[in-house]
What does this fold into?
Amino acid sequence: MTAPVFVVERMPTGPEFVLDGPEGRHAVSVRRLQAGEGVVLTDGLGHWAEGVVHAAEGKDRLTVALRGGVQEEPEPAPRITVVQALPKGDRGELAVETMTETGVDAIVPWQAGRCITQWKGDRGAKALAKWRATAREAGKQSRRVRFPEVAEAATTKQVAALLADADFAGVLHEDRDHDSTPLATAGLPAAGSIVLVVGPEGGVSPQELAAFAEAGARPYRLGRSVLRTSTAGTAATALLLGRTGRWG
It folds into this structure.
């Protein structure tokens, strides 16, 4: 089992580091780490350092002796971004959690025309904060040191601009009558960026498909079954990671 990951605001510079606050409380009171156990400290931006617990004090203070210096995980290639239409209820957080555990690099919430959920005002700010907190916790749980970026909610016009700049742009589309290509056979770049749109439960509208097509995004399908919007992004990410060699 790999060592548990804890997030720090700044990477340590000396031979010892004191982990306190919420992360220290989780390490001491929840994980109940003891002297001699290994840990990994990260800023979630790709920088990380291994350490060994020197001492646990009180309920929220862990002294860690560092082993070696700070290291940096290379940027992934190709970079995978999923544009996720807003699902109903807490299924958005489920999508973020599973995509993060699988290995997605960025998530863009999309206010699609057929979305029932609306992110407006304080409600939207709270929902975005939940998505970002979910990505952070799922990144820790899956032992990642580079957490996915969760962007501000995007409009269809903004998504089209993102697709236009990608090295591979696609839209998951389940319409049997539509001329879609299996994602499993699509030509993928070895580097650069992949951007894939996952529509809402009601599907991507013809107007949105047209806007994305103009930006260079073709429709793709995963398989015979139709996945929910909260699981399609995870399945697609896994497929892309395998096909690009990032899983191997």
Observations:
- The chain has two domains: 5-72, 79-244.
- The radius of gyration is 20 Å.
